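Bench notes, afternoon.
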Amino acid sequence: MANVPETRDRDARGSLLLRGNPMNVSGNLQSTKRIPRRERLIVALDVPRADEARALVTQLGEAAAFYKVGLELFIAGGCFEVVEWLVANDKRVFVDLKFFDVPETVRGAMRALRGRGVTATTVHGNQAMMMAAAAEKGEVKLLAVTVLTSLDRGDLDDLGFQCDVERLVLSRARRALEAGCDGVISSGLEAPLLKRELGERILVVTPGIRPVENRPADDQRRTVDVAQAFANGADYVVVGRPIRQAADPRAAAERIQATIASLFSA
């Protein structure tokens, strides 16, 4: 397949988060986006209090440069104070609230998020919701949720989705791009299909990362380890419990960073 002209979208700090080359013609699925290596790890601040979030960030220090602020911390209060503190400390912020409401409400929420130094956020709705969010995204990268990594085939059957998971993920990813989203949240298991079909024009963020040597029983079902996620085409990985619950969270984060450094030259 012939290459198309590359497009570049720089954020406020000059990092390139999205490329327009539709397919890596070598067949290698590993991301070719110019993302600083240490920013490819997103640490999930899924803690119940703002002071715990700050303590974890302080403990991790230079081992992490990108953080996810999600629903648990948002409900606990002080969420935007944490966001402002992270931005002031030169950290990137992914606000993961999975906007799902009537389109005008989603539009208003997206508008309110702009101008806060946030790098990315999520929408988890139908085409009208995604289009409403995309219309107001401004400088914020908009990521559509495809299928939650906590869901398996039985869960999808219960929800009334009769197609297989890969077909559903690909369909939602295509519709997200059509709606104006920048990328998707996707399990590492479906990332290869997304990269083969949609190439480097889609940003793929993979949550639910688990260590290859120790897979605890929890609510994440469709998981891969760090190296496999990037081999499958992920641009970023989101890691929470394997870092937060480690005996030494900073050492756990640095081990992941070492894996990333072994995979990407810059």
